[in-house]
Write a structure and sequence with these properties.
Length: 349
C-alpha cells in the first residue's frame, strides 16, 4: 500500500498552483459567458445591455489578482518568506478596493452615455451638468480609494496631511493659473452663462463667435465660424462679457431705404401701409415695436427707417425672414408708386 506523508505533499506545491490557475481560467471563461447572456436580455442603448463591458474586465482582473495572491502565498509558505506572506493579504485587499472603484467608474461612464441618449427625448437634461457631476464623482471615488489604500498599507495620515498642506500651498502658488481656470470652470457650471451647444460671441476677444463644444476643467472649446477650434482658459470668462446668442428671444431687423424727394407727399401713407403689412407677417412679432418712420434727409433722398423683430432666432431662419421683409418692403414701395433712387443699406443686429 502506497502512502504519502505531509512532507511528500509539500513537494507538489507547484501542482496546486497549476490546478488553481486552471480553475481561475475556467471561472473567468464562465463569467464572460454569463455576463454576455445577461447583456443580451437588455437593449444595447441602456447600461444594463452593456453589463459585460462594465463588469468583465474588472472582475477578470480581480480573479487573476486573487490567483496571483494565492500563488504568492503558496510560494511564500513553501520557501518560508514570511514577509511576502504578510503583505500578500494587504495586496489582496487593495485589489478588492481597486476593483470596486473601477466597476463604479465604468458604470458611471455608461450612465453618462445613457443620459446623452435621453438628451434627445428629455430636453431638461443639461449635458454640461452631467459632465461636471461625473467629473466630481470621479474625483470623490479616486480620493476615497487612495485614502483607503493608505490605511490598508498602514501609512500614518497625520504627517502626510501636514506635508500635504505645505505642499498644497507651494503648489497653489506655482499653479495659480491652473487653479484659477479650475474654479473658473466651476463658476461656469454653477452660473451657466452658456452650456454645450450654445452659440456665443465674445466682443472683448475680437468679436469671436462660435458654438461651445466642450467645457473642461481648464479650457472651454469653441468652434468658430471658420470651423476652427478655439481653446479659451476658463478664468477669462470672469473678466470678459459673453453674449449668448442661443438664448435670445427675438432677432431685430433694421433697414434704411432712401426714396425720391419728389415722393415726399406719399411718405405718410407709405409708412402706415408698411406698418400694417409687417404686422400681418407670421414671423414678425406684432407685440414688439414695429417702427416704420421717416428718419432723416439724405444727400439725394429721403431716408425711411424700418425696424421689426422676428420670432425666428436661428440664423438661417432669420435670414429667410429678413429676405421676406425686404421683398415686402420693396414690393409695397413699388405698389405705392414710390421710387427708390439709392441702394438699400441693411444693418444686422
Amino acid at each position: 500500500m502506497i502512502s504519502f506523508s505531509f512532507a511528500d505533499l509539500q513537494r507538489f506545491w507547484w501542482l496546486e498552483t497549476v490546478i488553481y490557475l486552471g480553475l481561475l481560467a475556467f471561472i473567468n471563461f464562465f463569467l464572460k459567458k454569463t455576463l454576455k447572456k445577461i447583456a443580451k436580455r437588455f437593449p444595447i442603448d441602456r447600461w444594463k445591455g452593456r453589463v459585460d463591458t462594465i463588469f468583465y474586465l474588472p472582475s477578470s482582473f480581480f480573479l487573476w489578482i486573487c490567483g496571483i495572491c494565492l500563488i504568492i502565498s503558496f510560494v511564500a509558505v513553501h520557501f518560508r518568506f514570511s514577509l511576502v506572506y504578510e503583505y500578500s493579504y494587504s495586496f489582496f485587499r487593495t485589489a478588492v478596493i481597486f476593483t470596486l472603484a473601477w466597476v463604479f467608474l465604468r458604470w458611471k461612464k455608461e450612465v453618462e452615455k445613457d443620459l446623452i441618449y435621453f438628451k434627445h427625448t428629455i430636453k431638461k437634461i443639461d449635458m454640461s451638468h452631467v459632465h461636471m457631476i461625473g467629473r466630481l464623482i470621479s474625483i470623490a471615488v479616486i480620493s476615497i480609494f487612495l485614502l483607503i489604500i493608505l490605511q490598508i498599507w498602514g501609512l500614518d495620515m497625520v504627517p502626510l496631511m501636514a506635508f500635504g498642506g505645505v505642499g498644497a500651498a507651494a503648489l497653489g502658488f506655482a499653479a495659480k493659473e491652473v487653479i484659477a481656470n479650475f474654479f473658473g470652470g466651476m463658476m461656469l457650471w454653477i452660473n451657466r452663462p452658456f452650456v454645450l451647444g450654445n452659440y456665443i460671441s465674445l466682443p472683448d476677444r475680437g468679436g469671436l463667435e462660435g458654438v461651445v463644444e466642450e467645457i473642461g476643467w481648464y479650457l472651454t472649446i469653441v468652434r468658430d465660424k471658420d470651423k476652427r477650434l478655439v481653446y479659451l482658459p476658463n478664468a477669462i470668462f470672469s473678466t470678459i462679457s459673453v453674449v449668448n446668442t442661443s438664448r435670445m428671444s427675438h432677432r431685430r431687423i433694421q433697414i434704411t431705404v432712401g426714396v425720391r424727394k419728389e415722393d415726399f407727399t406719399k411718405l405718410e401713407e407709405l409708412t402706415q401701409v408698411l406698418k400694417e403689412v409687417f404686422e400681418k407677417h407670421p414671423s414678425v412679432d406684432a407685440y414688439l415695436p414695429i417702427n416704420v418712420v421717416f428718419s432723416s434727409f439724405g444727400a439725394y433722398s429721403l431716408e425711411l427707417f424700418v425696424e421689426v423683430y422676428t420670432k425666428q432666432t436661428r440664423y438661417k431662419q432669420y435670414l429667410l425672414v429678413k429676405q421676406e421683409v425686404l421683398y415686402l418692403l420693396y414690393k409695397t414701395i413699388q405698389q405705392m408708386g414710390v421710387q427708390v433712387p439709392n441702394p438699400i443699406i441693411a444693418i444686422e443686429k
